[in-house]
Design brief:
339 residues; D-Maltodextrin-Binding Protein, domain 2; 11 helices; rod-shaped
Length: 339
Amino acid sequence: MEIRHLKYFVAMAEAGSLMKASERLRVAQPALSVHLSNLEMDLGVRLVNRSNRGIELTEEGELLYERATQLLRYHEDAIASLKAKRVSPSGSVSLGLPSTLPGIVTPALYRALRDRLPDVRLYVVEASTAVLHEWLQDGKIDYAILFNIPESAGLHITPLYIEDFCLVGRPGGERSSKTVEFEELFEYSLMLPCSATSWRKILDAAADARGCSFGSPIETESTSALRAAALAGDCHVIMPRTSVCEEIARGELEARRIVNPDIKGLKSLVHIENRMMTAAQRETGRLVTEVIKNELTKLDTDMCVADTKALTLISPSALFPKGGWRGHPAHREAGSLVQ
């Protein structure tokens, strides 16, 4: 017995005649008569009494009609549920975040995914813009939040928010204020981001325009290292305010916005434009954009990204600066041993 046999029987029972059931089902009346006879033969019982007035269900026919309607309803519900499941995006998506963002957006992102995309599994990785850009190009991640990335062929860029660069250090002192002149930065002991980072390139460009240069005993692409140095109180660091918002709230650090020139950076959600995207990837991208904008608005971050002409947009370079371990004389002498 097939589902269609039950559908035909229910239609005949509800129509009260083979002719009306034939019109409803758009199945020839003789064919329905054959189906009914075969059903009765398979079950070994008479299901209907035929007359000139139509058909009337027997006791066995009433029982089959009751059970058949239940089975058909369960069947329709199962099909509808499966179709709804298919419509709901499902699958794995990967997202690269800069080290300034995970602590700010991950809790809200978890809640949004749980409630709105329950069948999507998001893998979040944290790294610098240079590394994230490389992973994105290599297809290792689907999306990346990149810093001051310029428009480029093959990249789809969605601007998210603009953040200020700040001089970050222990609070207090006569110089404490909401802003600091760029020229004053050279009076501080600094730990700086390494020369491969977009942060540092922007700072160096502004310094070169004034005939100056920055120096630091330690350079790093690690936000955690810069934050720790600032908390220790031995030096100041230059970071976005979002990197230290919790420490500022606790009174452990203060962040003074750099002015004249204003040093700002643009964060954007980026993916490879011509790469085929699944429904899960597309919907996750929209959700990530929404969540990040909402969370950064709460931090009173400048969300205006309409005019980016004043920003220094830089393509990421290799992570390791010149003179790294591969450039050391001992390794140059090793020749082919250095792979």
